[in-house]
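Batch job 17 of 40 flagged for manual review because the log was empty.
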Amino acid sequence: MKKVLVISLFVAILITGCKKEDSPTTYQIVNNTTLQSTSIQYLDGSMYEIVVYCYKGTDIVRQDNFAKVASGGGKSEKKAAEYDKVKVSFKMLPPESTYYSNSINDRLYVVAYTVLTKGSNTQIIINGQTQVSKYMKSSLLIETNSTFGDIFEEINK
């Protein structure tokens, strides 16, 4: 009887003591844009003044900010805690640019929300085909949405 009790106690301690820690939920912004040279200084495909809106359900519960994510594979990572999804916004030029306050540098919002996978790292890949809008809550009208590549080409004219 004593042996059964000791073995049961040992198994209980072994199971609870060796519980694996849950992996953190994180997201990573990956800027995979590659743009041709341009006459506008700083316009190289990098994203500036990035704001990530973190949602729980339909409510924004936090904003994460990044100064810059470089083009050509630049990355930025953040722990996501208890968020369900995120939405990314950014500008194409930094404050140092002479075009910073111009309408060509309006804040752009990635149209799609990115749903986060609990316990893993979710990559948010931005490239020339990423649908963006100048409105946070974009309508489904084609006129309000463009690709990141289309907007770059329009600015570079």
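Reviewer: the log was empty due to a logging misconfiguration, but the result itself is present. The longest helix spans residues 2-17. Unflagging and moving on to job 18.
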